[in-house]
């Protein structure tokens, strides 16, 4: 029976976290598109309990602001992790 390496596969926490943040940043446009499509599911003005057009505009603008904030937060995290990796003495040649 063939056995794998004796030590378990281990991903460094910093590189794992950076990769997950990059994945989140790549999925952000998809999340934005899905959130912007939500008003199409709301009932139209002809049906009872309609949402005013100004409510839709506020919703879309709010989603846009949240996406900008999430993007900035992810960018800062990725920049900080890249700076940490650059200053790590283990990775210097």
Walk me through the structure:
With 93 residues, the chain is mainly α. It has a domain at 24-38 and 53-82. Helices cover 65% and strands 0% of the residues. It is built from two helices and no strands. Helix 1 packs antiparallel against helix 2. The protein starts with 12 loop residues before the first helix and ends in a 6-residue tail after the last helix. The mean pLDDT is 79. The chain crosses the membrane at residues 27-44, 56-75. Keywords: Membrane, Transmembrane, Transmembrane helix.
The total of helices stands at: 2
The proportion of strand residues reads: under 5%
Uncertain runs are none
Q: Helicity range of the residues?
A: 55-70%
Number of strands: 0
Integer-rounded radius of gyration: 22 Å
Largest sheet: none
Structure classification: mainly alpha
Spatial gap, N to C terminus: 39 Å
What characteristic shape results from the CA principal axes? elongated
Averaged pLDDT: 79
What is the string of SSEs from the N terminus onward?
HH
Detail the topology: elements first, then pairings.
Elements: H1 13-37, H2 53-87
Helix pairs in contact: 1-2
